[in-house]
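Sequence and structure are no longer studied apart. To make this concrete, we show below a single chain and its fold as tokens.
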Amino acid sequence: MFNLLDFRNKISRRIAYGLTSLTMVVSIHAVTAQPSQAGWVDLLIHGVRVYQLSNMTDSQEVDLGNGINNQLVSSGQIDLFEGQAINAYIDDIGERLAAVSDRPDIPYNFQVVEDDSVNAFATMGGFVYIHTGLIEAADTEAELAGVVAHEIGHIAERHAVQQMRQAAITQGITGALGVNRDRLVNIGTQIALQLPASRSDEYEADRHAFYSMGRAGYDQTGLVSFMQKLVRDGAPPEFLSTHPDARNRVIALQELDDSEALPDATFDTSASEYQNNISSLR
């Protein structure tokens, strides 16, 4: 005969056993989990976001780029230039080049950094930073566009993502469960400011810049002339001070410039027009 009371007691005991087992499993994982990994327990309890570095999606890369940008700005490691005219000018150049790049399908964000040094850099997810010192060092829009196109080249080839993977391996924080987003943002910030690109990455970004400049209608010799001028002026600035040797990069670009049938430039690249466009910097 069916006994309702016995049935209820059995169900209660099974639920209690199940909860006890789950508590033990969670406790064991909480004790043994490595602090460098965000496991399923973190996801369950804290809602921590983790990313798989081996197959990061475009949206995840853009999300990390946003996090890196926020950290760079909020920590005071970069000081963004607030002049609207200059920012609009750089954004216009950047968007024109991004549209004809090898990776036009992600959002790009071009920002001007108030810094007298001749430098530019890019982080993952479409973020490009151009120092005011570099803008002033260029003589024409084509020279500036060459630098912007170079940084877009790093993004197009996902060089920062590759550097992040290597840095995570070096620091021993990779794992089957992925890596905590906050940890990756910290790594990305370090890469943006401290870790130079490899020899092959720089050559690859240079070549990308050269061809995308042509597709955008810029005089491709602008990239070559700008680098020649920076090398000729003495010790290479930060933009050219990483591997490979700046002079070798100039030679490689000059050979490319000499060997290619260059398209006619469609944008005004005169020095006087350029100086007028950046006059609000002074």
User: Anything to note?
Assistant: Residues 158 and 198 are 13 Å apart (CA to CA). The radius of gyration is 25 Å. The first strand starts at residue 50 and ends at 51. The chain has two domains: 4-50, 51-281.
